[in-house]
Structure formats: structure tokens, C-alpha cells
Amino acid sequence: MLSLDKEKSLFEKGHKLIGSIDESGRGPLAGPVVAVTVTLKPDIYEEILSCDDLKLVNDSKKLTAKRREELFDIISEKFFEVGVGICDNKTIDRVNILQAAFLAMKKSIGALKKKPDFILLDGGFPIPNITCEQQNIIKGDSFIFSIAAASIIAKVTRDRIMKQIHDKYPFYGFDRHKGYGTKLHLEALSQHGPCSLHRRTFGPVKNILQKI
Fold first, then answer.
1. pTM (2 decimals)?
2. Does domain 5-170 fall into CATH 3.30.420.10?
3. Where are the alpha helices (DSSP H) in the chain?
4. Where along the chain do its domains lie?
5. Inter-residue contact 121 to 135 (CB < 8 Å)
């Protein structure tokens, strides 16, 4: 089981509700970026420690799709709250992917009924212009339990969105690569051109648009 030492130390310092954030979808050429905040209270922390089903929680990238789906429901049930924030490809093109990711994170916090008093955040940069105390941790989803849990919810949520997009645009193979720049995706882009859900400011898409 990933460490909950960071969460424990924050509770010992007097924090009552910890929010942990991760996102999915910075790198793809199509679709949204999805951020998730999961919140944890001291009493729930103790319950999670004793939950055998949650011992498999890890960085979402290290889990199979089947395992992520299984953990999605357990995390959603066991944590105090789960907030989801989504920014679509048009927003990404307008403000750039980093700012869109921050906006999605703020939306995920805003989706909570009860706001955390401390935020743990995966990544190299803190969220700008929020009043809550926070700490960003590079590769936090690899060793901090609650950030890894957020990463699973974010990944599953985005994958489900990309499967819905696939139903509308089946010739791109979104159900397989989820919008990432795989050989299959690049070949489909070259053949069909971008659809309305592609990120037009991203290099491979931008290059094709310049040729049209």
C-alpha cells in the first residue's frame, strides 16, 4: 500500500480536511483535460488504512484499465468527497494546457460541498490564485496514497469520455489511444484531418491544419 504518512502528518498538525489533486490528459492531441480532488478526514483515514481493497491503489499509469475501474467505485465510496473538473479542447487551445489544467483543478475543488483546508497536488507547480494552503509534489501520484487515488478517478473519468467521443468519431480509434499521439492516431489524422475535438494548438494537429 502506498504511504499515507504525508496525510497523517497533516492531520497531526491540526488539519481537518485534506484535498488531494491529480489530473489526466495533458499530453493527448484530442479531448479534455480532467482534474480530480479527493478529500480525506481523520476518521476516514483510519478506515482507509484498514481497507484491504484499497491496498492496490497506485499511480493510475501503473495499473491496468480493469484494475482502475475496480478501484474507481471503491475510492468514490470510501473517500469523504470526490470533485471532478473538466476543461475541453477549445479551452486548452485558448489558454494553453497548463492553464487549462489549473482551471480544471479549480473546478474540481469548486465541485466539493466542503472545501479542504490543505491541498496536496501532483506536479511541479502550485495552483495559482487559490486561498487554501497547498503543497505541490513532483511524482506525488507515485508515493502518496490520496494523490494516487485522485489519479485513478481522473484517468477513468477521462477514458470514459474518450470512449464516448469514439462513438461519434470511430475512425480515429479514440477508444484505444484515448487521444494520445500514437501511430494509429497520427495515421487517422493524416487521412481524415482533425475533428472538432482535436487540440488545434498541439504540434501534429497544427501541422496538418497548415497543409489543408
1. 0.96
2. yes
3. 5-12, 42-49, 65-78, 89-95, 97-110, 145-168, 174-177, 183-192, 203-211
4. 5-170
5. yes
